[in-house]
């Protein structure tokens, strides 16, 4: 199971990157860190700088067919930056077009809104994204984890770091089905 994690050069919520990353490793999978630039990305613990992480590949050089699934961690600045980068948005959109599963947490759905892939989909997020998601045509729900199979792919979503255990279990179940 090869899983792409797409993040901005800075602003990703560290725990929303590291816990799903470790869950992929624990499940015998291979995570890969993608970003819009090479080098290292700067993670955050809410608004405070946390650790940095080495980028495996720039998103413009990555191919969707090389991965079984995509994880979009949150953090307020992270998806706000990604949704302004056409390469990142196109990469996300292609996961939906090719039917591959996507998992997103917290503020991560902002990138999905920009890719125009939430229309008619059931999704959860950080509560402040409810209006944005509804305006984009999504069916927003306030649930620990949502698994939507009504669309071209499976979409797994969660609200916040407190939901990570359920999020990890749900997306791993869906991603392992694809990679089997």
Automatic annotation (TrEMBL):
Coiled-coil stretches: none
Keyword ATP-binding appears in the UniProt entry: no
UniProt key word Transmembrane helix: no
Pfam families in the record: DJ-1_PfpI
Keyword entries, A-Z: Glutamine amidotransferase
Residue ranges constituting the DJ-1/PfpI domain according to the UniProt record: 1-173
Family the UniProt entry places it in: Belongs to the peptidase C56 family.
PANTHER family registered for this protein in UniProt: DJ-1 PROTEIN (PTHR42733), PROTEINASE (PTHR42733:SF12)
Identification of the protein by name: Type 1 glutamine amidotransferase domain-containing protein
Taxonomic source organism: Streptomyces chitinivorans
């Amino acid at each position: 199971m090869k899983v792409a994690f797409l993040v901005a050069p800075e602003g990703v919520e560290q725990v929303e990157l590291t816990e799903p990353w470790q869950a992929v490793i624990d499940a015998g999978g291979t995570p890969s860190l993608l970003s819009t630039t090479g080098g290292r990305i700067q993670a955050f613990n809410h608004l405070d700088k946390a650790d940095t992480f080495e980028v495996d590949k720039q998103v413009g050089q990555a191919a969707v067919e090389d991965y079984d699934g995509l994880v979009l961690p949150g953090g307020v600045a992270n998806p706000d930056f990604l949704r302004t980068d056409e390469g990142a948005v196109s990469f996300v959109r292609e996961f939906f077009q090719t039917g591959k599963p996507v998992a997103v947490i917290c503020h991560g759905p902002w990138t999905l809104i920009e890719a125009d892939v939430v229309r008619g989909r059931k999704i959860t997020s950080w509560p402040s994204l409810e209006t944005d998601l509804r305006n984009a045509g999504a069916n927003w729900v306030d649930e620990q984890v949502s698994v939507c199979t009504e669309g071209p792919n499976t979409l797994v979503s969660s609200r916040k770091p407190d939901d990570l255990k359920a999020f990890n279990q749900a997306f791993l179940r869906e991603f392992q089905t694809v990679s089997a």
